[in-house]
Structures are given as C-alpha cells and as structure tokens.
Design brief:
Length: 79
C-alpha cells in the first residue's frame, strides 16, 4: 500500500502564524512555537496512521526548512 506524503507548512500570516496542509489553512496562532507544536501534533497523528508526514517552516524570502519529520525526530519534541 503506497503512502502519501503530508507536508504541514508553518508560515507567518500578518502578525500571526498559520498551519496548512495541502494548501488548506488549518489554524492560526499568536506565536511560531504554538503553530509548530500544533503542526507537529497533527503530523505525528498522520504518521501513526502509516503516512509520511513532516513539518516545514516557511520564513520570508527563504525555502521551506524541515523542522520535524515523523520517524526521524522525537515526539513530543524536546525543544
């Protein structure tokens, strides 16, 4: 059974930080840390169901950077 890849994006939206999956905004948060934590929780849940999942941080004028990858980073995150 092939797995699908789920990239959760965390990015600034105005003064807030948003989390999206497959181009659909899921939620917004007051801080980057809160958005990353929510994205990691969601990615972990999907990973536990057998799909590939990762969290990418998108900061202005830079390429998306992996912040957490299911199966490669501890859950819950230590930092």
């Amino acid at each position: 059974m092939p797995t699908s890849r789920n990239d959760f994006h965390v990015f600034r939206r105005g003064l807030e930080w948003a989390v999206s999956l497959h181009g659909v905004a899921l939620d917004v948060f007051a801080s980057q840390k809160a958005a990353l934590n929510r994205a990691i929780d969601a990615a972990h849940q999907i990973g536990m169901q057998g799909s590939e999942a990762q969290v990418l941080l998108i900061e202005s004028n830079s390429s998306p950077r992996p912040q957490w990858v299911f199966g490669h980073h501890p859950y819950p995150p230590t930092a």
